[in-house]
């Protein structure tokens, strides 16, 4: 590369990174000042939900175009045979899409003419799982290059689809729209979120494109820990990277398998645990038999299911409400209507009655917690007294049944009572606020920057948490091993750059629609559900209310009318129930469930493959590259994958914390463990082995410590008081401290230690 070309290269990097920073962190920081409206949109909300994402796509596309223009063709790369291979793939893909659409239409007609819902769901689920299994069997291989990187023959556009499916996990498909429904723009002071997920999970691809993916692809590696072994040498960098890959990927995969169980049980009616095992079978067939080769083409087919399952319901709701099926363009006018309805609800006497009742219940739990033993005994004795007062002749009336049920669910001992009542008190206090504790949808950040001192502090903390979460998601994106490995599968470095652009484009199709879906569902609930008598609520409310974690609707103030604060919808419900909310045929509900299943399966495939490879290829790598040794590593990778899948299934069966929280935590871990040492190793030859090891250990250690020390069980066990937060930043954003500490440690230790000689093979070039 000439000096002039090198200068142009760095100017391009600097300019695009500056633009990325301004349209993400800069716009968000001043979002409260950008509340004026333009063409139905609050400007700050539009930028956070759409404008910045579109600019991110432009950044990645411009970088790929400019960088690929100046790059010479790679030696030995046959353009003609590659073009023929790509045309063949285009024909097969077109046949698949047409066949899927015809299959959906046939099922819709069959439902219309009387096919039962059980058969519709069974046929669709069986067909998709069989398709994934056939691809897994067809793609089986024991060749190392095929198993680890699909033979490096995946064109950019298809690798982009596979990456999008790998990326759009259960969190994106199931929980993102629901999180936006509940959290609005930015969540509340104690729970950051909202559009931070949209910005973080798309803006991170700018870092992947500009700082990581093409450089790693140029080194022709198999795994992310391979980079640390080649760049820094020695055993420790690779071992730490492998352990970190296992840690963050395992946290992530548990959330996906939980989503598999939730959707499969919903689609088939089987128990949650059986649903996990059914879905896990589909994962193992692909990743176990064919590795990256089978996983890639399975994920391409899954992407089509995912995007159709998301876009069809949201487009129908948009057409139903505003007469325009292009939801991201049309939902701005609904924001104004929601803001007006929110104001009316806050002033409604009936809504205030509900809020007061929740506050009364919370205070009641507070009183009970002052003397748990005495309160528990008194409540048990009172229930028994009331039962005795009814007499033997009335033991089957509704009152007696309710009393016996209340007695059976009463905590069995003091510890159980304390835990249960503390949780119930927190939930009631959270609901004892206007709008059931939900923030105004378009308002950035809690508090008031020009209010009282307390309100100003709340505002600053809320904004800081939003920025911190966005930072962790962006940097974590640039460090997730299962994502970066996808860019090893392209034929050339230029294709890797283009693949990042295609990935972000395909991901953005869903991420631009998720905020629209949240708004459209919220309008549907506020305009057509709230204010209805309980005995005339639509059937889907009673159906989903069977699972209290997904939906509860109780007449808190006793007026027989549903108030907004009386309806509690879980984040996972919003997407899954959208077809029923919009009145679509049941086949669309099945498609949505299958889309969520595909999202969870595709990500679980990539994550389990990453964990298995880290355990077998990286942790037990002996440096022998002969064919027999490579085949043995592939077999060990398959065995490790199977064992980890079973462990993750057991963990998911325990129904852990929310999907979004688990996924977000893995981003903090990945960003802190990998990004500082990896990016410095790519761009700074002075980075040493000792610096990389110290940076990875420091970043990972600080992140894990901050997450652990803020767990209630840990703080109670150690007798710690207060919240333990640094500058008010929530544990989900622990990566802010881990990345900073890891970067500082890598720089300092590399400065004071002697650098190892670095060859062209060790130092990534593009």
- The CATH level-2 architecture is identified as Up-down Bundle
Helix proportion = over 70%
For the biggest sheet, the summary is: 2 strands, antiparallel
Poorly predicted residue ranges: none
| CATH C-level name | Mainly Alpha
Rounded radius of gyration (Å): 27 Å
Kindly identify the CATH topology.
Sodium/glucose cotransporter
Number of strands: 6
- The shape, in one word, is globular
Number of helices: 30
User: Whole-number average pLDDT?
Assistant: 84
Distance between the amino and carboxyl termini: 9 Å
| Domain module count | 1
- Main-sheet strand order equals 1-2
Secondary structure class reads mainly alpha
Beta-strand portion reads: under 5%
- The CATH superfamily bears the name Sodium/glucose cotransporter
What's the short version?
This protein is mainly alpha-helical and 766 residues long.
Structure description:
By secondary structure, the protein is an all-alpha fold. It has one domain: Sodium/glucose cotransporter, CATH 1.20.1730. 73% of the residues lie in helices and 2% in strands. It is built from 30 helices and six strands. The strands form three sheets. Strands 1-2 form a two-stranded antiparallel sheet. Strands 3-4 form a two-stranded antiparallel sheet. It has a two-stranded antiparallel sheet with strand order 5-6. Helix 8 runs parallel beside helix 18. The chain is globular. The termini are close together. The model has no long low-confidence stretch (mean pLDDT 84).
Question: What are the key terms here?
Answer:
single chain, mainly alpha, Sodium/glucose cotransporter, two-stranded antiparallel sheet, 73% helix
